[in-house]
Amino acid sequence: MTILDDIVEVKKQELLDYPTEIKLITREKPLDFKGGLDADNGIALISEVKRASPSQGDINNIMDPLEQADAYVRGGADAISVLTDKQFFKGSFDDMERVAKTVDVPVLNKDFIIDRRQIDCAYNHGADIVLLIVTILDDGTLADLYSYASSLDLNIIVEVHDEEELKRALKIAPAIIGINNRDLKTFTVDIGNTEQLLAKYGTDDIHFIAESGIHTAEDAQRMQLAGASGMLVGESLMRSDSIEDKIQELKAGKVHES
Ligand SMILES: O=C(O)c1ccccc1NCC(=O)[C@H](O)[C@H](O)COP(=O)(O)O
C-alpha cells in the first residue's frame, strides 16, 4: 500500500457519507483558465495554498488561506490552487470557497477526485478548475469525469506522471495536461520529468502544466523552455516569507509577445 492508496481509500470512505445526489447551486460560469493560457504564450503560474502534505508534514499551517491567496494575486499569480483534502493536507472546502469568493483569478480544487459528486462539491464551493489524476482512475471513469466536468464548464487539468499515464490521458484528448514531477507513490521529485515527457510528446495543441518541485527562477525557466504553458507551485511559496518577491522570481523568465 502506498500513501496514494491510503488517500484514495479515505476518499471512498468519505463518499459513503455523501448524499447519492448533490444538487448543483446556481452560480456564475467558472472563470476561463484555458482561455488565459490560449491568450498568453508565456508561462502561467498557479500558486498553491498547501498547509501540509504527506511528504513534508506541516508546511505552513498558521497562515490564513485568504491572506495567502491575496498575496499570490498581488504578486501576479494567474490562478490559485487550494488543497481541500482534510486528512493528509489539512485543507478544506471552506478554505477553497473563501478564496474563490475573494480572488478574481481562476481557482483550482486540488483534491483526489474519483466520483462525480466530488466535482459537484467543487462546483458548489466555487472552483473554476478541477484536477483528474490519471493514476487513480480507470479509463472509463476518467472519460466520464472529464465529460461531466466539461458539461459544467469547468476547466480540467488531467494529471499524469509518466509516459504510460500520458498515453492514457491522450485518449480523451484533454485541452490541459498536468505533468507531476512528483511520483505520488514514492514522493521522488524530479523536474527533469516534465522535460523528458515534453521532449517526446510536446505539442501546440495541448497546454502542459509542470507540477511540483519548482523552487527557483532557474527551475521555472527550465519548465518554460521545455514547453510548459504553466507551472503549479506550492511548497516554495508556502515557505516564503516574501511571497510577492518569490512570485516575481519564479515569473522572471516569463516571455511575452511584443
Ligand atoms: O505533496 C505531496 O507530498 C503529495 C503527496 C501525495 C499526493 C500528492 C502530493 N502533492 C500534490 C501535488 O502534486 C503538489 O501539491 C503540487 O504539485 C505542488 O507541489 P510543490 O510545489 O512541490 O509543493
Automatic annotation (TrEMBL):
Superkingdom, natural source: Bacteria
Top EC class of this enzyme: lyase
Catalytic reactions of this protein: 1-(2-carboxyphenylamino)-1-deoxy-D-ribulose 5-phosphate + H(+) = (1S,2R)-1-C-(indol-3-yl)glycerol 3-phosphate + CO2 + H2O
GO terms for MF: indole-3-glycerol-phosphate synthase activity; phosphoribosylanthranilate isomerase activity
Entry keyword Nucleus: no
Gene3D superfamilies: Aldolase class I
Domain Indole-3-glycerol phosphate synthase: residue ranges: 27-250
Keywords assigned by UniProt, alphabetized: Amino-acid biosynthesis, Aromatic amino acid biosynthesis, Decarboxylase, Lyase, Tryptophan biosynthesis
Record-stated family: Belongs to the TrpC family.
HAMAP family assigned: IGPS_A, IGPS_B
Protein name, as recorded: Indole-3-glycerol phosphate synthase
Gene: trpC
